[in-house]
Amino acid sequence: MSARRLLRLVLLVQCAAALLVAWALLGHGTPGWLALPAGVGAVALVRLLINMNNFVLSALFASPTPSAHRLGLGARVRMLALEYRASMVMTSWLMARASAATRIYPDSAQVPVLLLHGYGANSGYWAHLTPLLDAARTSHATVDLEPVAAGIDDYAPLVERHVQALCAATGASRVAIVAHSMGGLVARAWLRAYGRAAIARVARVVTLGTPHHGTAMARFGLGLNAAQMRPGGEWLRALAAGEDAATRALIISIYSHHDNIVAPQTSSMLPGARNVELGGVGHVALGRDPRVLAAIMRELSLLSVAAGR
């Protein structure tokens, strides 16, 4: 099952739950004009509690937060609100409707960009970045990594096909990859699988909230890919052992010290890569945070097609 279908099924279950709550309230004398909003509110409250629980669970395995990134109560509430909004909009609207797409700008001077989403998501995650790429006339393609619960290595051929297609469509010899969460591991798995040929075709890999050393939260996930993201696992060790300094130098890892899915948060720090640390941003919200988007666009603006021919 695709992530889009799975998210639609979850959305259908949530709608049914809201109607069931409304029906129960009507049976207890609640006015009709209030029953349905109350049902919707009950489902929204459950979603909020799930988000809050993610922050609580991730705190159990958290790495120490540097003093420069520590937050007060108000900032923490704001972070929760932004992560909750991002989660609701992404899963209940954007990703439930999205399909992978490619936009080509033949006259672009920028390296084309391949966008890789994370675990349980799809191409809809990039709904806030793609308009910026369009405004900059940067060719780009999104990918739906399927099957949802496959092994991370199983996605490497899909990445290879899209890299080849982007190069053929734009005439560029290199692409840049921007990847969220598990997508960063997929990019690294592709580099390992295709070796020097892949390294020669990638100008930069920018990862957002990628658990490069695994995340304790993966123990709650389903599928082989979730198992591979557990800290200390054999797959992660083999991935790291297969990389040299040249490969790591291609990677920029952007991460948040308050990530509610990657824990410990310093798992996103990758030796040999350029690590960019932020604070006050949740895992899903990385894809729409203005600082993160600006950092991505700044890095991409430095990559020209001419330099890679």
Low-confidence stretches: none
Mean pLDDT comes to 95
Give me the count of strands: 7
* Proportion of strand residues: 5-15%
The CATH top-level class label of one domain? Alpha Beta
Largest sheet: 7 strands, mixed
Provide the CATH topology of one domain.
Answer: Rossmann fold
> From the helix content, strand content and strand pairing, which structural class follows?
alpha/beta
Question: What secondary-structure arrangement, pairings included, does this model have?
Answer:
Elements: H1 3-27, H2 32-60, H3 73-97, E1 102-103, E2 113-116, H4 130-135, E3 140-143, H5 156-170, E4 175-180, H6 182-200, E5 202-208, H7 224-228, H8 234-241, H9 245-248, E6 251-256, E7 274-278, H10 290-301
Parallel strand pairs: 2-3, 2-4, 4-5, 5-6, 6-7
Antiparallel strand pairs: 1-3
Helix pairs in contact: 1-2, 1-3, 2-3, 5-6
Explain the overall architecture:
By secondary structure, the protein is α/β, with parallel strands linked by helices. The chain has a domain at 102-308: Alpha/Beta hydrolase fold, catalytic domain (Rossmann fold, 3-Layer(aba) Sandwich), CATH 3.40.50. It is built from ten helices and seven strands. It has helices at residues 3-27, 32-60, 73-97, 130-135, 156-170, 182-200, 224-228, 234-241, 245-248, 290-301, and strands spanning 102-103, 113-116, 140-143, 175-180, 202-208, 251-256, 274-278. It is globular and about 70 Å long.
